[in-house]
Amino acid sequence: MSISPFPRLLVLCGLLAGCGPADVPFELRFAAASGNAPVDCAGRLADLRFYVTDLAVLRPDGGRARVDLAANGRWQGQGIGLIDLEDGTGSCANGTPDGNDRLVGRVPPGDVAGLSFVIGVPFASNHADPLAAAAPLDDMSMHWHWRSGYKFLRAAATDGKRRVSVHLGSAGCRGAVTAIEGCNFPNRVAVTLPDWRPGKSVTVDLGQLLEAVPVGAEPVTHCESGPADPACAGLMPVFGFDVASGAQVMPQRVFRTGP
């Protein structure tokens, strides 16, 4: 009696993690702007660094395909990417000389109907021991020691009339590093861009933050994500957050599809 080859084929496919189409390369670039005008360290930008996680492309049927970010020992690892759009020169003198404007990885092939990601660090990684962290969580300039977690985003800019500085991260956390029970204000920003398509970039519009600052505010409107911080009252809603509850109840307005 002959044996059908199909069971053997199924076993082989299982060992090879599937016989479907191979994943395809993925690249996503980020750029800073204020409205429609690019900004850089020549004068308008002072800082812009942020963590990206849960990166996925959207499918026409409403599904999501996660992007597998390739670990590179510096900017990507553990499914987390670090974008750094300052270069430590000019108005970014408090920054670092090296930077990174893109995320690279692989994604299952298929039609794309948008992009989604989260600005932040997952809970377990956010509150682990930073001294034992691997890249990109080994950047101590991004760790918020007194809040037992990371700064998900550091942004600072001016339009000549107003200056704004934002350090976004979890607040109201209970416990100590490696033993955080929970946070009243997680402050992870969910971003959905239904008009994004492969080849497009993502623009970080700091003008949205500047517009939330009253003209003449002195010396710098600096928000550190605390619900009791008056400077955060106008800025946290730009990320979609309700200041009182900490819930993201509105679409964020900082990240948009670029050219």
What does this structure look like?
This protein is mostly beta strands. It has one domain (20-257). The protein contains 3 helices and 19 strands. The protein has helices spanning 6-15, 123-126, 207-210; strands at 24-34, 37-38, 45-58, 64-66, 68-69, 76-77, 80-84, 102-107, 115-119, 143-144, 149-150, 153-158, 163-168, 171-176, 179-185, 189-193, 202-205, 221-223, 255-257.
Give the rounded overall mean pLDDT. Answer: 91
Total domain modules: 1
User: How many strands in all?
Assistant: 19
Main sheet attributes: strand count, strand direction, barrel closure: 9 strands, mixed
Shape: globular
The span between the termini is 63 Å
Q: In percent, how much strand structure appears in the residues?
A: 35-45%
Low-confidence stretches: 1-19
Radius of gyration: 21 Å
Percent helix: under 10%
Structural class by secondary-structure content? mainly beta
Specify the number of helices.
3
Give the H and E element order: HEEEEEEEEEHEEEEEEEEHEE
Describe this protein with a few key phrases.
mainly beta; six-stranded mixed beta sheet; disordered N terminus; nine-stranded mixed beta sheet; 3 helices; 19 strands; 259 residues
